């Protein structure tokens, strides 16, 4: 009798477990759409965060002479805005590394908003630590991430909290692993000048593979301004692709592919916390602004003289976005000047029309 009771209890226990599992599957299946973000974060926490953090440790590279300044994350508190210098390095075989992309980024994690201020690589400025003026991208060639950071801080008059250096060559495998990325190519891109690498990128494709995406960043037969914009588009396209939920499980493999092609002084634990914040939030809204310049030659070398109005506006953008007290509706947008100019023009037009109508009425 006792054995029969035990068997009944075991069956009952198994039945309860099966029922719990079934209920869980029903909840996850029926409510999967509603809860997909928290579930993705939970899965990331349980299965991936440890692997990713360990892989990120290989990329952790504090700058020489600077103490690591981790931003502690307390769950009950909000994550404050921070700045980062993004360096897109294009280092090919048997060539010195150079930072083809220099972007001052401001990230506001709580609002899922990112500001990208691009500095064209030929911008003429003081290279901090060299006591000379030169192209801003030469700072990386002369003194690596530290000199690039110091030079950009001096140029923009704002501190850089972190740096992140990515070798575009290493992103080719990442793009392929993601199944390609979307790029807004509406006309065939052909690199054909005799002293340039030859390639053609066809327009109108739904996705572009790693080599095509890399060529997209390397195309150099239009303006430095357009090339800088393409680098912004390229980085945004990778982020958009990676943030799709079906790519979360690939993150450890993607980190492996990046390998030595990624360096940062942002602590791995902070990157993990930031990643979870991104997964839980809305898709990031990325706003870009490029400091224009006017070309000139000095001793036979081409440079860009930064437009003073653009430079001043870039500083205003950075100050506004890095201030934790700035509310979402108070954020200064990169197109604010154009909108203000349009409003002023429309206002002048309306005033002129009213004056013209009044004059006509008086004449009658």
From TrEMBL:
<comment type="similarity">
    <text>Belongs to the LytR/CpsA/Psr (LCP) family.</text>
</comment>
<dbReference type="Pfam" id="PF03816">
    <property type="entry name" value="LytR_cpsA_psr"/>
</dbReference>
<feature type="region of interest" description="Disordered">
    <location>
        <begin position="325"/>
        <end position="364"/>
    </location>
</feature>
<feature type="compositionally biased region" description="Basic and acidic residues">
    <location>
        <begin position="335"/>
        <end position="356"/>
    </location>
</feature>
<dbReference type="InterPro" id="IPR004474">
    <property type="entry name" value="LytR_CpsA_psr"/>
</dbReference>
<protein>
    <submittedName>
        <fullName>Transcriptional regulator LytR</fullName>
    </submittedName>
</protein>
<feature type="domain" description="Cell envelope-related transcriptional attenuator">
    <location>
        <begin position="98"/>
        <end position="243"/>
    </location>
</feature>
<dbReference type="InterPro" id="IPR050922">
    <property type="entry name" value="LytR/CpsA/Psr_CW_biosynth"/>
</dbReference>
């Amino acid at each position: 009798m006792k054995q029969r009771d035990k068997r009944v209890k075991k069956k009952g226990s198994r039945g309860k477990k099966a029922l719990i599992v079934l209920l869980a599957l029903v909840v996850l299946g029926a409510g999967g759409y509603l809860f997909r973000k928290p579930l993705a974060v939970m899965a990331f926490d349980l299965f991936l965060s440890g692997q990713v953090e360990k892989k990120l440790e290989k990329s952790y590279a504090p700058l020489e002479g600077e103490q690591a300044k981790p931003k502690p994350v307390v769950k009950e508190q909000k994550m404050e805005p921070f700045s980062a210098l993004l360096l897109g390095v294009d280092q090919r075989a048997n060539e010195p590394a150079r930072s083809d992309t220099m972007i001052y980024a401001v990230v506001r994690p709580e609002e899922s908003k990112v500001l990208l201020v691009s500095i064209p690589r030929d911008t003429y400025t003081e290279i901090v630590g060299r006591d000379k003026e030169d192209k801003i991208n030469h700072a990386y060639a002369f003194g690596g991430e530290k000199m690039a950071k110091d030079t950009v801080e001096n140029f923009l008059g704002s501190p850089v909290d972190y740096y992140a250096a990515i070798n575009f060559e290493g992103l080719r495998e990442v793009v392929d692993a993601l199944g390609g990325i979307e790029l807004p190519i509406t006309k065939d891109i052909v690199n054909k000048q005799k002293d340039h690498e030859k390639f053609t990128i066809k327009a109108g494709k739904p996705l572009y593979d790693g080599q095509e995406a890399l060529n997209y960043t390397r195309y150099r037969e239009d303006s430095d301004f357009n090339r800088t914009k393409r680098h912004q588009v390229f980085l945004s396209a990778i982020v958009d692709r990676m943030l799709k939920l079906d790519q979360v499980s690939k993150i450890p493999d993607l980190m492996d592919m990046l390998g030595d092609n990624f360096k940062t002084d942002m602590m791995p634990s902070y990157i993990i916390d930031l990643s979870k914040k991104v997964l839980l939030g809305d898709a990031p809204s990325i706003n870009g602004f490029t400091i224009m310049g006017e070309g000139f030659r000095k001793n036979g070398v081409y440079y860009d003289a930064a437009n003073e109005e653009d430079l001043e506006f870039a500083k205003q953008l950075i100050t506004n976005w890095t201030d934790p007290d700035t509310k979402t509706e108070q954020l200064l947008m990169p197109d604010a000047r154009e909108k203000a100019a349009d409003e002023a023009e429309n206002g002048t037009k309306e005033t002129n029309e009213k004056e013209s109508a009044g004059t006509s009425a008086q004449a009658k």
